Amino acid sequence: MSHIAYVNGYYVPIGMAAVHVEDRGFQFADSIYEVCAVVDGELVDETLHFERLVRSLAAIEIPSPVTKPVLGLIYRETLRRNRVRNGLVYCQITRGQARRDHAFPSPSPVPTIVVTAKRVDPAKLERIRTTGVPAVTLPDERWARCSIKSTGLLPNVLAKQTAKNQGAYEAWLYDEQGMITEGTSTNAWIVSSDGILTTRHLDESILGGVTRGVFLALAADAGISCDERPFSVEEARQAREAFSTASTVGATPIVSLDGVTIADGKPGPITNDLNQRYRLHHKIGA
Ligand code: PDD
User: Fold this and answer.
1) pLDDT value of position 285
2) Entry pTM
3) pLDDT at residue 286 above 70?
4) Is the pLDDT of residue 283 over 90?
5) 3-state DSSP percent of the chain in helix, strand and coil, to 5
6) pLDDT digit string (tens) for 135-159?
7) Residue at 286 is within a domain
8) Greatest CA span in the chain, whole angstroms?
């Protein structure tokens, strides 16, 4: 947990950090967020995360309350005050506080900005990357604009809890055609039964993960071609490899899906190779 939170210009002990009860983030999830990993004190893909933050804000017409250099300073100060060198920094921006009314308030309120930081044990992440994890599939019950990194995450929360109740680490969500969209908090990938690296193309049904983009570039550099297309639950179960990507961990190997063992039940060679390239690219563990 964060000990110190940044809230609208102030660094506040977490127990005293607060936003207004009529904040639209609280009342309507009228807000967006970003999560950036921190490795050995360095922010991972800071620019890409900032660019997506700006895109999310623009998509819901919240004027950006920070520039990249200012947010960078806030991130670093929040990390310093919380003594986080390995973990993540979380940033949430809401439309601000106003009398409860669904439509945008006029005049526009000042956006609320909150930044927190927490430690994540790198050894735990390494264990996950080494052993892999089980996942389940569940229907995608989210809205039609998943490219926006909105804090309206109730369907994701419920699906993740269902996965946890079933002893799984992640739920891969499938659309009405039975095609996987993404995980509750990760992008979904397979190496198909004919050996092709595959992940869903970018559209409104998934979040354009920063890690997804970096993995695609690393795969291209390595001469591994990738098919960006929908794949079915059945195809995933019969895949040679499966993995999930997110900034916090890189690639998490998925070793079983709905209780069906993927290949030999171990992280696959392409997953391991891309994870290794990701670590080298970000000088993780160098
Ligand atoms: N989740 N898809 C969803 C629905 C996500 O919530 C995330 C990230 C991703 C991966 O995006 P990226 O590679 O940019 O981290 C894909 C963050 C980590 C979270 O909600 O905590």
Assistant:
1) 67
2) 0.97
3) no
4) no
5) 30, 30, 40
6) 999 999 999 999 999 999 999 999 9
7) no
8) 59
Mutation choice for ligand 1 from 32, 149, 186, CB with most ligand atoms inside 8 A: 186
Average pLDDT over residues 31-41: 97
Q: Say if residue 50 is in the same domain as residue 183.
A: no
Question: What token pair was written down for 138?
Answer: 């569940």
The yes-or-no answer on residue 149 being catalytic is yes
> Which amino acid residue places its CA nearest to atom 9 of ligand 1?
186
Whether ligand 1 lies within 6 angstroms of the CB of 137 is answered as no
User: What's the domain range around 207?
Assistant: 125-281
**In angstroms, rounded to a whole number, what is the distance separating the alpha carbons of residues 26 and 62?**
15
Tokens of 54: 């700006």
Q: Take residue 158 and report the two structure tokens written for it.
A: 């419920």
The closest-lying atom of ligand 1 relative to the alpha carbon of residue 182 is 2
Which one, of 206, 162, 213, lies nearest residue 185 by Cα? 206
Q: Which of 149, 164, 266, 283 is catalytic?
A: 149
Task: Based on the fold, state whether residues 61 and 189 are members of the same structural domain.
Answer: no
